[in-house]
Amino acid sequence: MKKCPKCKGPLGERPALSRRKGIGDICSDCGYKEAMEDAQKIIDMYSKESK
Ligand SMILES: [Zn+2]
């Protein structure tokens, strides 16, 4: 069983491809967290622009 490089847990049946360079496959939980982090960055970017 492959392991998730981020949380060291099992990759599971449906691994996600990390958006971070050089990480590769991660578990779906970590894929979800990365997606949320990226969404927050976009929200922060827009909130700074709309001063
Ligand atoms: Zn993980």
Structure description:
By secondary structure, the chain is mostly helical. The protein has one domain (1-51). The protein contains 1 helix and 2 strands, in the order ββα. It has one helix spanning 28-49; strands at 16-17, 25-26. A two-stranded antiparallel ribbon has the order 1-2. β1 and β2 (25-26) form a beta hairpin. The termini are far apart. The structure holds zinc ion (ZN). Zinc ion (ZN) is lined by residues 4, 6-7, 9, 26-27, 29-30.
Biggest β-sheet: strands ordered side by side in the sheet: 1-2
Instruction: Sketch the topology as an H/E string, one letter per element.
Output: EEH
Count of helical stretches: 1
The share of residues in helices is 40-55%
Instruction: Please report the total strand number as a whole number.
Output: 2
Structural class: mainly alpha
Q: How many separate structural domains?
A: 1
- Strand content range: 5-15%
Q: Ions, cofactors, ligands: which are bound?
A: zinc ion
Kindly report the average pLDDT value: 93
What is the end-to-end distance?
A: 49 Å
Q: What does the largest sheet look like?
A: 2 strands, antiparallel
Tell the overall outline: elongated
Weakly predicted, low-confidence segments: none
Radius of gyration: 14 Å
